[in-house]
Specification:
Low-confidence stretches: 2-6, 332-337
CATH class of the largest domain: Alpha Beta
Structural class: alpha/beta
Radius of gyration: 22 Å
Number of domains: 2
CATH superfamily of the largest domain: ATPase, nucleotide binding domain
Distance between the termini: 34 Å
CATH architecture of the largest domain: 2-Layer Sandwich
Strand content: 15-25%
Number of helices: 18
Mean pLDDT: 94
């Protein structure tokens, strides 16, 4: 990745970009019609099992953020630049409960915990699925914030506010409590038309009406650094924390390098977010039954999409094979089914014949951690087809299934929204997977442009730069900067 420009006194922007499996702190610079990034800190992330429940280790996560901000300060000093602001994006739906003194009630639950699904029926007894969709336009996912909150014990909510993960990090940096709107739209408690909290839903579930802090839009300032944070990071206390598209997909979509409006996007990572960008939500019954979501994007746009299974299936399979290798004791004694490193795996999967078995990548059977290859084989075997144990066969099944699901979802998005699509942009980690990109082009019959990998960080940085007057105002102009700086790789359909 290109280093941020070493221009003395240049404004630099720091993106804290955290996913469900890893995090990055990235310094970006914008100038001359280009955006450049430099990764100053990477760190792992993952769920922690505590007494049978899955949580995030927020204290460790925040410590990594502070380490990354210190590295950003050091980088700025080394190149003679100035950190103008910080923006934070993470995954959606999860939150921490903070009391009046600003203390966390406990480690935030992970959406992969089973408490959300157990609360679905109770929520639907009070607010029917049709009513929920008419207001929120949100895809039904059993781990959405509304279901997680319904699973909380009511006494535990008294005197607390719920801060979504990026808002919780911003609070710990600034002491200011806000809820950024693109992430608020994923909770199931946000009115997609009014752009406000759906307070009637909070009341219907006996949740405090002021459970969430006030809303804030991308580009607005959340606050400046607390003195203790400034001392720890080496950044000036006047450094601003600016709201960006704090749902990582919102930032990623803002940085799709589209040259025109007729595009679909796939933000491909642990999950795949597949859809189109619209001016207004689609709240029809057909949209609801197709399980499409209307999430808020930067500049009041609507991210009309479905949350589709993602590369979690591949990473969990690799983890299982690595564990088998470890348990076997040595490569010489390892079972024949064990996998080579990822490049070899993908090359072997590409050599597998087309037309193999498919799985439903959206199945709840694949959400929790565990032996993923065995679960995939079981899903295929349940259809009366046998999937071989060879890792290459399993990987090809995963990628074929993802590509097929992408194709179905893109077609549905276009049909339900009325928006024509003539190109698909794949951004995020999955854009590096050449086999997945080619299979997607084949399955959709449309050209695929892959990249940038760091679309989320680019969107984060560009919104900060725009707020500082260092980037254009219009979203298409921001995307033109990305297209110039990170042109991507084009794949055409093959028979």
């Amino acid at each position: 990745m290109t280093a941020a420009p070493a221009v003395p006194g240049a404004a630099l922007f720091t993106a804290v970009d955290i996913g469900a499996s890893s995090g990055r702190v990235i310094v970006g610079g914008v100038g001359g019609g280009a955006a450049e990034l430099h990764v100053v800190h990477r760190f792992p992330n993952g769920v922690v099992d505590r007494v049978g429940a899955l949580h995030w280790d927020f204290d460790a996560l925040f410590a990594e953020v502070l380490t990354g901000l210190r590295a950003a300060a050091d980088h700025a000093a080394a190149v003679g630049g100035v950190i103008a602001s910080i923006g934070i994006d993470t995954w959606a739906v999860d939150y921490g409960l903070v009391d009046a003194a600003g203390e966390l009630a406990g480690p935030p639950f992970s959406y992969r915990d089973g408490r959300g699904p157990r609360a679905v029926a109770g929520v639907h007894e009070r607010i029917g699925p049709e009513r929920l969709y008419e207001t929120t336009g949100l895809q039904h996912l059993p781990f959405n914030t509304i279901f997680q909150l319904a699973a909380e014990q009511a006494p535990g909510l008294a005197g607390h506010q719920a801060l979504l993960i990026p808002d919780l990090i911003a609070f710990k940096l600034t002491g200011s409590r806000r809820t950024e709107s693109t992430n608020a739209s994923t909770t199931g408690l946000y009115d997609a038309v009014a752009g406000e909290w759906a307070t009637e839903f909070l009341a219907a579930l006996d949740l405090p009406v002021e459970l969430f802090p006030p809303l804030i839009e991308p580009g607005e300032t959340i606050g400046t650094l607390l003195p203790a944070v400034a001392a720890r990071t080496g950044l000036p206390a006047a450094t601003q924390v600016v709201a960006v598209g704090s749902h990582d997909t919102a930032s990623a979509v803002a940085a799709v390098p589209a040259r025109g409006p007729k595009f679909a996007y796939i933000s491909s990572g642990t999950w795949s977010l597949v859809g189109v960008e619209l001016d207004a939500p689609v709240l029809t019954e057909a949209s609801r039954t197709a399980n499409f979501t209307n999430e808020r994007g930067v500049d009041g746009t609507t991210r009309y999409l479905r949350n589709v299974g993602g590369l979690w299936l591949l990473s969990e399979s690799i983890r299982a094979w690595e564990q088998e290798t470890h348990d076997a004791g040595s490569p010489a004694s390892a079972p024949a089914a064990l996998a080579p490193p990822l490049p070899g795996l993908l090359a072997a999967a590409a050599a597998e014949p087309a037309g193999g078995p498919l799985i439903d990548v959206d199945s709840a059977d694949f959400i929790a951690p565990g032996n993923m290859p065995e679960r995939i084989r079981a899903a295929v075997n349940a259809t009366g087809v046998t999937l071989e144990t060879r890792p290459a066969a399993v990987v090809r099944c995963i990628l074929d299934s993802l590509a097929a699901s992408y194709a179905t979802t893109v077609r549905q998005a276009g049909r339900l929204s009325g928006k024509p699509v003539d190109v698909i942009h794949i951004v995020g980690g999955g854009s590096q997977n050449e086999l997945l990109c080619q299979l997607t082009a084949n399955a959709t019959g449309l050209p695929v442009v892959a990249g940038p990998v760091e679309a989320t960080a680019l969107g984060n940085v560009l919104i900060q730069a725009r707020a500082a007057g260092a980037a254009p105002t219009a979203l298409p102009d921001l995307r033109a900067i990305v297209a110039t700086s990170h042109p991507g790789t084009r794949y055409v359909p093959q028979s």
